[in-house]
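In the design runs reported in the main text, the only information available to the sequence generator was the tokenized backbone. The following block is the verbatim input for one such run; it is reproduced so that readers can re-run the procedure and compare outputs position by position.
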């Protein structure tokens, strides 16, 4: 997964990258810019840090 500032959280299939171009699958749309991303130990909650603000996204897996 990756975060694109002003776009949100996406996933890409690295097996389908062609000449540096890939199809992205949107998970969460967001217009914020984040500084750091991490999972909890159980890989069920995804955290994004924006300065002193932390956002958590509970992911269905």
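Verbatim output:
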């Amino acid at each position: 997964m990756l975060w694109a500032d002003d776009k949100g959280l996406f996933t890409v299939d690295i097996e389908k990258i062609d000449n540096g171009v890939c199809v992205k699958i949107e998970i969460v749309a967001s217009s914020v810019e984040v500084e750091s991303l991490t999972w909890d130990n159980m890989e069920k909650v995804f955290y994004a840090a924006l300065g002193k603000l932390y956002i958590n996204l509970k992911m269905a897996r």
